[in-house]
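Methods, example record. To illustrate the input and output format used throughout this study, we show the complete record for Tautomerase. The sequence lines were provided to the predictor; the line carrying structure tokens was produced by it.
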Amino acid sequence: MPIVEITLIEGRSFELKEKLVKEVTQAVVSSIGAPKEAVRVILREVPPWHFAAGGEVKGRPPEATE
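The corresponding predicted structure is encoded as:
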């Protein structure tokens, strides 16, 4: 049973997340031949201030001050 875990910054619509899950599932089915019913996808959403790329945090919490 393949399990795919995806961490992304919160704020996307349900429809976009649903599309992502469907397309990731199909990619797993196509690439390794797993049955669709066996593919598990876990979406983990984090606030932008819990995510950084290139040493830069992607957002600030509402209560943060300079």
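Annotations derived from this record:
The helical segments are 14-32.
Residues 14-32 form the longest helix (19 residues).
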